[in-house]
Write a structure and sequence with these properties.
The chain contains 11 helices and 9 strands. Helix 7 packs parallel to helix 8. The longest helix has 18 residues. The chain is globular.
């Protein structure tokens, strides 16, 4: 029986202030409406995550918020002087709550990655596309070369890494293949990519792409099959089960469902509810649905996950490197 994995997580939006203005994004907020999470809010989520049996704290934030006017004032109001120091503090709080941090903070310098590495079980950055797209015209951080450089830096530092492509934002089929090939080349060079997300575009009201169509299931299945051919076999292919029916995509070659939360909504697609584990087990009858940690077993074995996360990861992992203790939500 084929195994399909997922992680149980909480979504912690550190800030929704972002220098990018992507044509499909509803996460980003204008400075007068943006928010920086306070410790009390983060602690409440962590308490709920621990009680619900989560193993992952997913920290997300808009890219380079420090370049947006008003952010320093937000930091001061939160009682913080430096964003990276604040993220590290939140990661330490997560570890104290039995949660393994996974941080997706947009483009970072090598120094920033080195500072965050000890406190994270894994990290991530979506490549999205190698193409220069109109949807990214106002998003300097979405330059493909910059994102490839970031993923390579993480590889040189031996950081277990999640990346992926966004499907349906104006890219061609060839663009998708070239993006997957670029990810495959990075993994062959550094061996650090644990999963690649095939994420279907979900149109949001009020955005430039609000009236654009969602990708068709046949197209997604074809892409998953192609990804399985292009990517090295030790990279998992992930599909979000709140954005598309997972069964045909699993049949096409996907092996992971990503983070599913019993506590928090999908912060990027909050209107798309997470399916319950019982629902997924019924839908994926014939497959063995198993919970994993935010760091995959092969990287636990190599010891690539952050030094401060190793004791907790060892206590949460079973003999197979997946999650040892079973929770139902």
């Amino acid at each position: 029986m084929n195994t399909i994995t997922f992680s149980r997580n909480i979504f912690i939006p550190v800030t929704d202030l972002c220098r990018n203005r992507c044509g499909y994004c509803s996460f980003r907020k204008e400075p007068d409406r943006a928010h920086l999470i306070h410790r009390s809010e983060a602690l409440q989520l962590m308490d709920q995550g621990r009680e619900a049996g989560c193993s992952e704290a997913l920290f997300t934030l808009g890219e380079s918020p420090g370049l947006v006017p008003g952010f320093q004032r937000m930091l001061r109001l939160a009682g913080a002087a430096d964003l990276l120091d604040y993220i590290i503090e939140l990661c330490e709080l997560a570890l104290d709550h039995g949660l393994l941090p996974h941080t997706n903070a947009g483009l970072l310098t090598e120094e920033d990655l080195i500072r965050l590495q000890p406190y994270n079980a894994s990290m991530g950055l979506m490549l999205e596309s190698l193409a220069f797209l109109p949807a990214h015209a106002l998003s300097p951080g979405k330059r493909p070369d910059l994102r490839l450089d970031h993923i390579a830096r993480a590889g040189r530092l031996q950081i277990p890494f999640t990346t992926g492509i966004l499907v349906g934002i104006g890219e061609s089929w060839q663009d998708r293949i070239e993006s997957l090939q670029a990810i495959a080349d990075l993994h062959r060079a550094f061996g650090h990519i644990q999963e690649v997300i095939i994420q279907p575009f979900d149109p949001k009201p009020g955005t430039a792409l609000a009236n654009s169509p969602r990708p068709e299931m046949d197209d997604l299945c074809r892409l998953v099959k192609t990804a399985r051919e292009v990517l090295p076999s030790d990279i998992a292919i992930q599909v979000p089960p709140n954005l598309a029916d997972p069964l045909p995509l699993v049949r096409a070659g996907a092996s992971d469902l990503g983070g599913i939360s019993p506590v928090t909504p999908d912060g990027i697609n909050p209107e798309r509810d997470w399916p319950r584990e019982e629902e997924l087990q019924i839908r994926l009858s014939g497959y063995d649905l198993k919970e994993r940690l935010p760091v995959y077993p092969q990287f636990v074995e190599r010891g690539w996950h952050g030094e401060r996360t190793r004791a907790l990861a060892a206590s949460l992992a079973g003999d197979d490197g997946l999650r040892a203790k079973k929770y139902i939500f």
